Amino acid sequence: MLGCRGEAWGGKQPQTVAANTAPMFAANMSTVSLPEDLPVGAEAFWLVARDQENDELEYGISGSHAYFFSVTSNTGEVKLASLLDYETLYWFAITISVSDSYNNRVQREMQVIVEDRNDNAPVFQSISFSTNVSETLPVGSVVLSVLATDKDTGSSGAVVYSIENVIPATEGSEYLFRILPNGSIILNGSLNYNSKSSFYQLELKACDSGGLYDNRTVFQCSSSVFVSISVIDKPDLDPQFVREFYSASVAEDAPQGTSVLKVEAMDGDRGINDPVIYSISNSTRPGWFDIGKQDGVITVNSPLDREQLLEEDEEVQVQVTATEMHPNIHGQEAKASIWVTLRVTDVNDHVPEFYNCSLQDCAFTPDETQANFTGYVDEHASTRIPIEDLAMVVYDPDKADAEAFSVSPQRAAGSVDVQVLVREPSLVDYERQSVMLVQVTATDSVSGNASVASVTIHLRDTNDHRPTFPLSMYNLSVFEHSAVGSVVTDSIHASDPDTGEGGHVTYSLLPGNGADIFAVDPDSGRVTVRDRELLDREKQAVYYLTLQATDGGNLSSSTTLQIHVLDVNDNSPVVSGSYNIFVQEEEGNVSVAIQAHDNDQPDTNNSLLHFSLLPSLYSHNFSVDPDKGILRNLGPLDREAINPTLGGRIVLSVNVSDSGEPALWTTVSVTITVEDINDNLPIFNQSRYSFWVRERDPEVQVGVVEAWDADQTEANNRISFSLSGSGANNFMVRGSVLGSGQAAGRLSLPSDVSLDYETQASFSLIVSAENVDAQGHETTAEVLVAVEDVNDVPPTLDSASLQGIRVAENGSQHGILGNVVAQDRDTMSQVEVQLVNVICTKAGVDVGSLCHGWFSVLANGSVFINQSEAIDYEACDLVTLVVRAYDVTTDPRFQAYSDNVIIPELVLPNQQVASVRARDDDSGNNAAILFSILQVDFIAKDGAVTAFQGFFRVSTSSEASVFTGNIETEWCPPTFRSLLTSLDSTLQGTYQVTVKAQDNPSEGLAQEASITLNLFTVDQSYRVRLQFSLSKEEVGANSEEIKAALAQATRTTVYIVDIQDIASPVRARGRSYLDAYFVFSNGSALTLDQLNMMIRNDQDSLTQLLQLGLVVLGSQESQESESPDTLRNVTIGLGVALLLVIVIFSTIIMCTQKSYQRKLRAVKAAKEARKTAVGVMPPGSAIPGTNVYNTERANPMLNLPAKDLGFESQSSSSDLDHISINSLDDNSVDLENRTQEIKARWGMSWYRGFLT
């Protein structure tokens, strides 16, 4: 068995102990598959192990990824503690362990395979896309390609694209585009800049193909993105004339250059508006007219002659061609033509002329006019024989009545019978003159002699007269659609001078065109309307009727009635085509000609059109040319000024009326779609927001900001929020849609961030609202966040008030001895000082509760004598008062006390002894933190305070935004006799180290904060020496295995300080020795007796140590006391052999009793250490020998070099052993329950004040 402290093994061999079988994990404990959507707190798997002895097993998980799980140590149930993510880590390894408290902890590596779930939606590479395409882009062409990716695998990551909406939503636009599985957008129909929209917005979504999530098949879809497609107009359309029909009249005597008519055409491509050049490409009378190339005005180019147009209805047809200045997309001229009717009106500009032709064959050309004629006749020709070869016609082409001249001379030679013949039947008329007197003159053509004879002729009345009309043609007029019976004329009468029945006249209309429309009274000759429906000027403007008059002798004659149907304004204007116009707001312009015509008579008021806009909600933004019908906008159009429910559509009513009496009109609707552009910035509903949030509350909503964007399409009014300003990284803002163009930005704290009033009481932030804008414009508002103070900072004790006090014994001193000062940075704190424990010692030995009633500590920190007469130096020379500062008003969620940090005195120079962490919410250089040591004081156990300079140093490191100050030993104070390589082992007490954290601002003053650490020492009385049968080189090579076995047995951190060969191994059991300290996490250490007992209780560790060469376990002093003089020892041994036997037996009895007592104390201390939880430990980096733990909540070990530190001890560690905090390598502690129990019981950390 192991000997008592200060003794060797006494020459006895280690006792053999039967081995306990270690537990074994089940065969399937090597791999586990977990879905990534497993919720935190859900059962992940079970650790299953078998133990032959059915010992109680304790399970654990360790490794760099152990934080994913929590283990119920006594059952092996493993629950998920942190969310899994296949996309981040799809495979990792953990170390599982099981222990039966007898054998070494059994460990095994387990592979954790994370199964993918459909937890990610596809994400587009950009939130908006835009492109320009030509309107002539062929159907089937690729317009644009988009890409969305999904981090999931399999069908969960297979992306399917869809077009959710097409703006504008016109007929056919829904199917104008399609999207392929690879994200390519294909043109599915033809584009047209002029007749269709010039701008399209496609709302796209990307969805995966479905996959498991939360044990059901779900489909994840991305947020909508918009593709803006601008259609570029190309010169693919010919120009268009403003009017469908042009006609005008011009007098035939109009001089050259006279303006007749203006035609107007405009480019059909309204996005190009190419200038137009006019020309006359064809004409029925070439050269008569010309046209201005630029203005389209038709002018007279040469003399006009109506009489040449008699067979052409007195009209000239002119074909006008409008040609765009630049060629079209095919390289050809873009042109359009229209026939213009020009009517030439008559002027009386002709005199009767003779023509050498027959009437039937006469063309009345200028070449046929003649003034002199020649004829032939045979001599002695008979009377009434006409002259041969004489063809003479008189003609006046003017519209006025003309009289033909004929001469019938009667010639004779010599003597001849003179007969009076009827020369002109019409002159021989009874009705004119019943008796006629005729003078016959005979004239000698040679001498000119003449004689005259008078002949009286009595005329006999016969039915020789036909009824005659005064005129051969009558020009009449009647209004179209006149009522039946309306009189066209009642003044046309035929006269018949005959008497009797031969003079009685009746009238009739001869069959022909119009005979069914008009009627004539047979007796009066009155012409009236017979059918008003057929009397339509637009069907026939002129009717030629033959009116016949017949007398009683059945003789008849006729006259022509030229009846002009007068126009009545009975036709409303007719509008051609429909008008749907698309124009972009701000920059786009409307210019469209309303095509209309009126079928009433041209060049009259009945067909003269007038255009006007009817009043409507938005008509004031437009104008229409009253004569040409061109509709234009008066200024830039604003989509946002249009009622959002109209979708940007403005419907105008254009009134097209004629100028007749009464006027007739037609109304045409013109739909103008004003397409939205991103021309409005978001606007916050407030310019400044004020919010407040409680400190220390993570993941809470701070406040809500709201913004509004006036743009009317989702692609342009979507709002995103961002934060900037000092401390903006402490907040996050998440946007949500409230309605069209309205969004809310919800400010909150991330789950891993909470604010600290003491660090920063308020934040001044800038919240920005922006939307998809290539120019990146945004609006901002100020956000002030006030941090509400929560009583969360533990109080601290002023180190200056924790001074040692000397007190006289036996009632010599009364009253207050001193005052402990407590401080708290919280605004509403209520701090009091409490006495936690009293330790009574005499010469370093615990004397129990002897002094517990001697002194008291009030809540205000006053320390006073409670039992003056009971104070007895001989019974107790040192009273240690353990006090704490407690804040009564501390929020229950936080500890009401400050933290202590313990450091063993055996740490080497340049080794880390503690660490502090700080963060600065600023950004850039303003967030860089530098740590420094402000002050180092050593408070001895007797209360003396010594200030040190340069004792410790601090190095700064950072990870992410957290800066860490690692406190290291530098060199010992110069007050000691020599410069040591470690802390002075003779000092017993507390190092108070004040650390300052200061930022490095680019401008302004630096901000700083400080914290004080209390570092406790451990003396050399706990140094233990182990002898090995191997050389020091072999022991050094096995040092890690030795440390592991010792740590397994003791649950402490093992510090090896020296490995040396034994100088005189003659009597020594071993060849080398190893000196080490066994330190608990609270700074207390194992004594030799406690170490002896713990190694014996762990058979596996003992067996391993024996295999590594351990032969003797003892203290340094006991083994160093051996004399090198072997001969003297042998002599003394032989002389007092008998005495030794007696002494040995006596010693065995005494040591057994003493060892038993020490074992009881050691067991009690170890038990207390195991029971103490880590809940009261502050977070931070791992510090060996302290109450600071790493992220795995296990106390790490330092690999110290094997070097003798030369520590010495002068005091007991009982005061440190009184409060023991167990290393968390022992997984049997119920951390959560013990943490709550300790917090509820104490609610504060410990400070020690010393009172002597």
Written description of the protein model:
The chain has ten helices and 77 strands. The protein is mainly beta and 1252 residues long. Helix 3 (1039-1050) runs antiparallel to helix 5. 33% of the residues are buried.
Percent helix: under 10%
Query: What form results from the Cα inertia axes?
Result: rod-shaped
Q: How many β-strand stretches? A: 77
Number of helices: 10
**What integer is the average pLDDT?**
77
- Class derived from helix and strand content: mainly beta
Distance between the termini: 41 Å
Strand order of the largest sheet: 2-9-8-5
Flag low-confidence runs: 1-18, 399-419, 899-909, 971-985, 1116-1131, 1168-1252
The biggest sheet amounts to: 4 strands, mixed
Radius of gyration over alpha carbons?
A: 63 Å
Per-chain topology:
Blueprint: E1 24-25, E2 31-35, E3 43-46, E4 49-50, E5 58-62, E6 69-71, E7 77-80, E8 91-99, E9 106-115, E10 123-124, E11 128-134, E12 142-145, E13 148-149, E14 159-167, E15 177-179, E16 184-187, E17 199-208, E18 211-213, E19 216-218, E20 225-232, E21 240-241, E22 246-251, E23 259-262, E24 265-266, E25 276-283, E26 289-291, E27 297-300, E28 315-324, E29 335-345, E30 353-355, E31 393-395, E32 435-443, E33 450-458, E34 473-479, E35 487-489, E36 506-509, E37 518-520, E38 527-529, E39 542-550, E40 556-566, E41 574-575, E42 579-584, E43 591-593, E44 596-597, E45 610-613, E46 622-624, E47 630-633, E48 649-657, E49 665-675, E50 683-684, E51 688-694, E52 701-708, H1 714-717, E53 720-724, E54 732-739, E55 742-748, E56 762-770, E57 778-788, E58 796-797, E59 816-819, E60 822-823, E61 831-842, E62 845-846, E63 855-857, E64 862-865, E65 878-887, E66 912-919, E67 929-940, E68 945-948, E69 952-959, E70 962-969, E71 989-999, E72 1008-1016, E73 1024-1028, H2 1032-1037, H3 1039-1050, E74 1053-1061, E75 1072-1079, H4 1088-1097, H5 1099-1107, ...
Parallel strand pairs: 2-9, 11-20, 22-29, 34-40, 42-49, 51-57
Antiparallel strand pairs: 1-4, 3-7, 5-8, 6-7, 8-9, 10-13, 12-16, 14-17, 15-16, 17-20, 18-19, 21-24, 23-27, 25-28, 26-27, 28-29, 30-31, 32-33, 35-38, 36-39, 37-38, 39-40, 41-44, 43-47, 45-48, 46-47, 48-49, 50-52, 52-55, 53-56, 54-55, 56-57, 58-60, 59-64, 61-62, 61-65, 63-64, 65-77, 66-70, 67-68, ...
Helix pairs in contact: 3-5
